[in-house]
Amino acid sequence: TVARATLLETSTADRPAADLTIRAMANHLALHSISQSLVEFLARTHAAFTPDPGTSALPAVGFEVLGSARFSDPEVEIKDKVTLYLHRIAPDNHPRNHRDGPSVGSVDLDLHYLATVWVDSAMSEQILMGWLIRELYCHPILDRRPLSNKAGWELAESISLVPENLSTEEMSRIWGPARRGCRLSFPFLARTVRIG
User: Fewest 10 Å CB contacts: which of 75, 99, 131, 188?
Assistant: First the structure.
């Protein structure tokens, strides 16, 4: 059994994997803060990874947050990297987040990410994807500590990282406009982000 903890937490105590909600509002820098914090976390855990006896080390790669223009431009080479691409932002319609009264103050969002491995070797590709999925499973909660101060996060704020199941059609809508061909990817959600 693999212990699960908050990002950057060294304790192996189990933490709940249920959807957690930010308790206050962040400012307009929140989306970039979350994306950058996630990619920096993955870079740190990759560098610190120690393989189990008898297993191989992780392939060397860089880590990057991709914007829509870079992801969709086939002239831009992406090689030997693990990337995060924020491909969709949607209102969080979870019943716990419905508020009475006028729709003012804050907006609750789900951030839809695509984690992608860009390497040529099938073995390296699958090793890196297996490691990435395991890291997100073991650390399902993004708490305040790694988040940028500029986004105005409160100390009690936390965000849940949840695997997402995308259909073949939904994946085609992401990869088709990119004109790159499909790459091995893992979709997941960051929820709930409250901006106001």
Answer: 75
- CB neighbour burial string for 105-123, b if at least 16 within 10 angstroms, e if fewer: ebebbbbbbbbbbbbeeee
Cα 192 to Cα 178: distance, rounded to the nearest angstrom: 28
Q: Pick from 53, 7, 44: which is nearest to 158 by CA? A: 7
User: For residue 119, which amino acid is it?
Assistant: V
Q: How far apart are CA 125 and CA 83, in angstroms?
A: 13
Question: pLDDT by residue for the chain (196 residues), tens digit each?
Answer: 455 655 544 333 333 333 333 345 688 888 888 999 899 999 999 999 999 999 989 999 999 999 999 999 989 999 999 999 999 999 987 644 445 555 556 788 999 999 999 999 999 999 999 999 999 999 998 877 777 777 777 777 788 999 999 999 999 999 988 888 899 999 999 988 878 7
Q: Which secondary structure element, helix H or strand E, spans residue 153, and what is its range?
A: none
Would you list the DSSP string of 177-194? TTTS----EEEEEEEEEE
**CA-based max dimension of the chain:** 60
Q: Which residues pair with 19 in a beta bridge?
A: none
Question: What six digits make up the tokens of 112?
Answer: 């839809």
Nearest to 190 by CA among 125, 113, 123: 113
Residues 148 and 35: their CA atoms lie apart, in Å, by 10
Strand order in the sheet with 62-66: 62-66, 81-91, 107-118, 185-195, 158-163, 141-143
